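Appendix C reproduces, verbatim, an entry submitted by the partner laboratory led by Prof. M.T., so that reviewers can inspect both the input and the predicted structure.
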Amino acid sequence: MVDHHRQWPITDDLATLRDDIQRFALAAGLTGARLDDLVIAANEAAINVLEHGGGVGTLAMSSDGAVLAVEVADELGTLPPGAIPGRRPSGRSVRGFGLWLMGELCDSVTIEQAPGRSTIRLSMHLDTGGPAAGAGAAPVRGSTHPV
């Protein structure tokens, strides 16, 4: 039986967390470059919790068979909805690359904010036997320009 929901605390052991993300995503059916993209995006979100979100948070993953979702929540609550940049930050920018990268790598990214809590949700569509994700379709987020 496939586990459809898992949750882990975010600690400074990001290597173990990346392994957990990869195992869950593989079991859900995400493979190849899209798996790598999700692991990178989720890692960036976890780093943001450690550096900007009060250092305490959780990463939860779920799958309904069509979409794989990663929810990263912190306990500071300062990340506002709409914080994902629509364009790549300039080379002189000190911050903002992680959020921008999440938006580029995932099919959708949303942020919810409540007092004492911010949650970023990263979603990837799973291949359910139809055309490969992104084949012939416009991206949900991101640009068509190489980084």
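Residues 25 and 116 are 29 Å apart (CA to CA). Additional entries are available on request from the coordinating office.
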